[in-house]
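Appendix B. Raw example, untouched.
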Amino acid sequence: MRFRMFAALALVLGATLFTAACGSSTSPSSLGSIAVTGTAPAVGAVTQLTATGMLSDGTTEDLTSSATWLSSDPSVVTVSSTGAATGVAPGTASVFATVGSVTGALQLTVASGQ
């Protein structure tokens, strides 16, 4: 009898600790897509790009500082780790923001500086 009571108590305690360790009983929202927005810089100018994540629960999240940024053609436009795009030469290039396995893109056309 004592063993059954001890086993039941251990089961309840274990389930309570598991629930507390896992946090919420609802599953977290997953990232569905990324929208990259901003304007193209002129040669020699810098503009700030923004990465916005669309989550599975319908909400959005600013991912600008957590995304990995990449330019398809650094001879036209470079992009920093914070999403700052610098125009290098006239032309067109795409800029990508990636979080996990989800990537968003924006095509930029850099014009000559005036």
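End of appendix B.
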